[in-house]
Amino acid sequence: MIPLSEPRLNGKEWTYVKDCLDTGWVSTAGKYVERLENKISSYTKCKYAVAVNSGTSALQIALQLVGVGEDDEVIVPTVTFIAPVNAIRYHRAYPVFMDCDDYYNIDVEKTTDFILKETVFKNGFSINRSTKRKVKAVLPVHVFGNAAKLHELTKLCRKRNIKIVEDATESLGTFYKTGEHSGTLGD
């Protein structure tokens, strides 16, 4: 069997874990959390980085921040962990599943076609012609360290008032050819 994800602790990780356990700071606060946030912010060149207890929580917060709510729709790839779908349903919104490309990321061409052909832009929102719901966001998942090809999709989404919320849980350290980190192109 080839493991999908295997922990590798090569440095002082065990010392840090022991320090957390010894001091009782095993939570979403403490000196290590702040250090992590600062290092991630610096590494990705993002103004802010906020550590949360899970990727699901991060997606729930991000979807709330971009205004996804009840009866809205969010476009999500078919190849994903359940967290993006759970985060969408947490807001009583609906996932719209989109095919994936050869790298198992959301197929940007098919997503673009869907937005252009299956939605109408009305009163500042992209409305799904079939369901009459607002398409509020696209939630690409950068799987296995592969970044979804978002540059062109980002332009269209901005024109159509569709937010992009990236799930970069599996792609920290992945860069676009432009030098941008995956997870930094969305809203």
Structure notes:
This protein is an alpha/beta fold. It folds into two domains: 32 residues, no CATH class; 110 residues, Type I PLP-dependent aspartate aminotransferase-like (Major domain) (Aspartate Aminotransferase, domain 2, 3-Layer(aba) Sandwich). The protein is built from six helices and six strands, in the order αααβαβαβββαβ. α6 links the parallel β5 and β6. The chain is elongated and about 55 Å long.
Key phrases:
13% strand, Aspartate Aminotransferase, domain 2, single chain, alpha/beta, 4-stranded parallel beta sheet, 187 residues, two-stranded antiparallel ribbon
Overall pLDDT confidence: 94
Instruction: Report helical residue fraction.
Output: 25-40%
Order of strands across the biggest sheet? 2-1-5-6
Q: How would a textbook summarize the main sheet?
A: 4 strands, parallel
Give the SSE layout.
Blueprint: H1 13-23, H2 31-44, H3 55-65, E1 73-77, H4 83-90, E2 94-98, H5 108-118, E3 119-122, E4 125-128, E5 135-138, H6 151-159, E6 163-164
Parallel strand pairs: 1-2, 1-5, 5-6
Antiparallel strand pairs: 3-4
Helix pairs in contact: 3-4
Briefly summarize what is shown.
The chain has helices spanning 13-23, 31-44, 55-65, 83-90, 108-118, 151-159; strands spanning 73-77, 94-98, 119-122, 125-128, 135-138, 163-164. With 187 residues, the chain is of the alpha/beta class. The chain has a 4-stranded parallel β-sheet with strand order 2-1-5-6, sandwiched between helices. A two-stranded antiparallel sheet has the order 3-4.
